[in-house]
Amino acid sequence: MPDSHALIVGASRGLGLGLAREFLSRDWHVIATVRGENPPQAVEELSADYPGRLMVEPLDVVVDDEITELRERLSDRRLDLLFVNAGIGHGRGETLVATSAREFAHVMLTNAYGPMRTIEALQDLVRKDGVIAVMSSGLGSIANNRTGTWEIYRASKAALNMLMHNFAAHDTSRTLLAIAPGWVRTDMGGPNATLDVETSVRGIADVIAARRGTPGFAFLNYRGEVVPW
Ligand SMILES: NC(=O)c1ccc[n+]([C@@H]2O[C@H](COP(=O)([O-])OP(=O)(O)OC[C@H]3O[C@@H](n4cnc5c(N)ncnc54)[C@H](OP(=O)(O)O)[C@@H]3O)[C@@H](O)[C@H]2O)c1
């Protein structure tokens, strides 16, 4: 959609970078956040490919001051899409018993607290008919958990989904989405994952386009199928 504006949080690499590229290819204007002041080369190259349409901002979602400063810098912007993609993995076989409190807190802060703090701080920049989305995971589904692997990561994405549910109780006009991107070949997903980044982000962008204008919260995969809570 021409003249549409997206903010992608956590766009230095992997799915976030792929989402930025996908929306640029659809003629959107994109604000991409990265950690630190120096964007990675891939982001610089994307910016060169789309002159004047990609703006890069620093943000670490677990640093409250950085969220506040970003909100101030973007105060005159209006967004059609706020997509918080930032997240970290935690080992498949790592159990709660083997995880320190500090490590547990780090995963929870990065995958649940930080994304929702970011959304709470920036949500008023999103148009009333706009979309607010988080990158969840199929592993965040409680109903589908039959193996009990990825204990801490699962818990963090289930917490993210619940926090979005809380948010949805107060936001009745926008489209709110928790997206499961599939198992994707990124640094996190690893080389054996079943999907490439392009397939996943194309599907996600299609889901966003299809759902825009439908208020309420849904947990959907990259093909637009409902994921059970
Ligand atoms: N790949 C999969 O199969 C898969 C499946 C389900 C869900 N997901 C979810 O999809 C999202 C992206 O994953 P990915 O596979 O693209 O992983 P990735 O390649 O490891 O990329 C993770 C992204 O999150 C950013 N990030 C991490 N901590 C951050 C923080 N504190 N503040 C801001 N940004 C932060 C990273 O920035 P830096 O470059 O600065 O580290 C990077 O841009 C994650 O939320 C992940 O849980 C992935």
In short:
This protein has helices at residues 14-25, 41-49, 64-73, 101-122, 151-168, 197-211, and strands spanning 5-9, 29-34, 54-58, 79-84, 126-135, 175-180, 216-221.
Secondary structure elements and their pairing?
Elements: E1 5-9, H1 14-25, E2 29-34, H2 41-49, E3 54-58, H3 64-73, E4 79-84, H4 101-122, E5 126-135, H5 151-168, E6 175-180, H6 197-211, E7 216-221
Parallel strand pairs: 1-2, 1-4, 2-3, 4-5, 5-6, 6-7
Helix pairs in contact: 1-6, 3-4, 4-5
How big a fraction of the residues is strand? 15-25%
Q: Please state the overall shape, judged from the principal axes of the Cα atoms.
A: globular
Please state the CA-atom Rg, rounded to the nearest Å.
16 Å
- Termini separation comes to 31 Å
Task: Give me the CATH architecture, please.
Answer: 3-Layer(aba) Sandwich
Superfamily (CATH H level) name:
NAD(P)-binding Rossmann-like Domain
How does this structure look, described?
- The protein has 229 residues and is α/β, with parallel strands linked by helices.
- The protein has a single domain (5-221), classed as NAD(P)-binding Rossmann-like Domain (Rossmann fold, 3-Layer(aba) Sandwich).
- The protein is 38% helix and 19% strand.
- It is built from six helices and seven strands; from the N terminus they run βαβαβαβαβαβαβ.
- The chain has helices at residues 14-25, 41-49, 64-73, 101-122, 151-168, 197-211, and strands at 5-9, 29-34, 54-58, 79-84, 126-135, 175-180, 216-221.
- It has a seven-stranded parallel β-sheet with strand order 3-2-1-4-5-6-7, sandwiched between helices.
- α6 links the parallel β6 (175-180) and β7 (216-221).
- α3 (64-73) runs parallel beside α4 and α4 packs parallel to α5 (151-168).
- The protein is globular and about 50 Å long.
- The chain binds NADP nicotinamide-adenine-dinucleotide phosphate.
- NADP nicotinamide-adenine-dinucleotide phosphate is lined by residues 10, 12-16, 35, 59-62, 85-88, 110, 114, 135, 137, 181, 183-184, 186-189, 193.
